[in-house]
Design goal:
mainly beta; four-stranded antiparallel beta sheet
């Protein structure tokens, strides 16, 4: 018995010693090192535009990751700038702590700079991307200015509710949906060139919304070289569904003989407005006796009679002449059935020698007319806003003179407020296509990066 007890105790002791030895060995083995991959970084856009003194400039989303690391441990910053006088590394701010960060730039000066955006991960590993940044100059009342990027030749706008507007561009057939309150790229775009059967621009210049139908018109005139281009002789419709950020457009119908109908009508009435001469081969559209439509709106209380507002000609076609509006009394049928256009008597409005660049009304049939020069090179010429009641024979009344020292010409009225309310404010959009935004002599329409192309939207308080 004693011998057996000793054997049992020895076996138990040896077992405990072995376990202890194993524990000691486990604590003395080297720990396995944690390895981290190279971080990744991507930008939602490779280029960005801002403005000196701007409020709420566009931003870029920065997406980062690193294998083996929690994304919150990664830091994002600007590590270099090729031209700090435009924007330095200290002018770049990054917010957020997740996989997607928000990057904003505060412009110091006009011009271009390449910003290096760096993500620093664990293990001292980094990765970079280049953000190509451009800053335009300061403008008057910057707090009231917003920049719609992606295109610079804005030419017509339609309010679609919820603080959003659809904007046309006269250098393409793309329609863009923008948030009116923010400087940013379009939320959504549509291009109906295929449905319209065109490969060149329609030169969209006017638009209006009736019910769920948006009517759009080309300029109907020759191109700047005096050549007839068929796509410009186009009016068409789109159907609006939804509103605000969820707005959608569907192609409706088109009509491609409105210019012909106008010339035939004027010829039959003694060439009062010189439409045949203004559309002749070799005649530029933007001259005092030219032919160019830029405004479209319906008559008071009507869903059938539309007003065409002319940039040229003046009536008569002499300095100080009146602005011309021609009613199309069956405009709804022109688009819905292809009926030949029928016209009412021309309406001649005294706008102080200026022509119509846009015309828009509100639900109460209060009209605003954006008046500007008929000339082609007129970004520094006079602009004004006139109020009208839409009734032939009634005179418009000037409500405001518009500033002309900043780049771009005033081109579109987004929506008309209650004009009888004190402090009524209206938002206008510029055509900035011929503007040198960044001080290098390049017109905005010719910029290589779409993010650098932009039109300015500004709010004005009416007197």
């Amino acid at each position: 018995m004693k011998t057996q007890h000793v054997k049992t105790m020895k076996k138990t002791w040896l077992g405990a010693a072995g376990i202890a030895a194993l524990l000691v060995a486990a604590t003395t083995l080297p720990a396995q090192a944690v390895t981290y991959g190279t971080p990744t970084i991507s930008l939602s856009a490779s280029a960005l535009s801002g403005a000196v003194g701007a409020v709420g400039d566009p931003t870029v989303k920065v997406t980062v990751a690193q294998s083996g690391a929690d994304v919150s441990a990664l830091t994002v910053s600007a590590s270099a700038s090729s031209k700090a006088s435009v924007a330095g590394t200290g002018d770049v701010s990054v917010t957020g702590a997740g996989a997607v960060r928000q990057l904003a730039v505060t412009a110091r000066g006009r011009g271009y700079t390449n910003l290096t955006v760096k993500v620093t991960g664990l293990g001292g590993k980094t990765a970079t991307k280049t953000l190509y940044y451009a800053a335009s100059g300061a403008v008057q009342n910057p707090a009231d200015a917003r920049y719609f990027t992606g295109a610079s030749d804005s030419s017509a706008a339609v309010d679609v509710g919820g603080g959003y507007t659809v904007v046309a561009d006269d250098e393409s057939n793309v329609l863009r949906l923008y948030d009116r309150a923010n400087s940013a790229a379009p939320v959504r775009t549509w291009d109906f060139s295929a449905q319209l059967g065109v490969t060149k621009e329609v030169d969209i210049e006017g638009a209006t919304l009736i019910g769920s139908t948006i009517y759009w018109t080309g300029s109907l005139g020759n191109n700047k070289d005096g050549e007839y281009k068929a796509p410009r002789n186009t009016v068409f419709t789109t159907t609006l569904s939804g509103s605000g950020s969820t707005a959608q457009l569907a192609y409706g119908r088109s009509y491609k003989k409105l210019r012909d109908d106008l010339v035939a009508w004027d010829t039959a009435n003694g060439n009062r407005y010189g439409f045949a001469a203004g559309t002749a081969a070799g005649e530029a559209p933007k001259q005092i006796d030219g032919f160019n439509v830029e405004g479209l709106e319906f008559a008071p209380g009507s869903t059938t009679t539309a007003y065409l507002g002319f940039r040229a000609p003046l009536a008569p076609a002499v300095p100080g002449g009146k602005a011309l509006v021609v009613p199309v009394t069956n405009f709804d049928k022109v688009l819905s059935t292809g009926a030949k256009a029928v016209f009412g008597a021309g309406i001649e409005l005294d706008l102080g020698g200026l022509a119509i660049r846009d015309i828009r009304k509100n639900a109460a049939d209060q009209y605003l007319i954006l008046a500007g020069s008929w000339a082609a090179d007129d970004n520094s010429d006079l602009y004004a806003l006139y109020q009208w009641d839409g009734i032939p024979g009634h005179a418009p009344v000037k409500r405001a003179d518009l500033p002309t020292t900043d780049p771009g010409g005033w081109e579109a009225i987004v929506a008309v407020p209650d004009l009888s309310a004190a402090g009524a404010r209206v938002q206008l959009i510029t055509d900035s296509g011929s503007a040198d935004l960044y001080g290098d002599g390049t017109e905005a329409k010719d910029l290589t990066r779409p993010e650098w192309k932009k039109s300015r939207a500004a709010w004005f308080t009416l007197n």
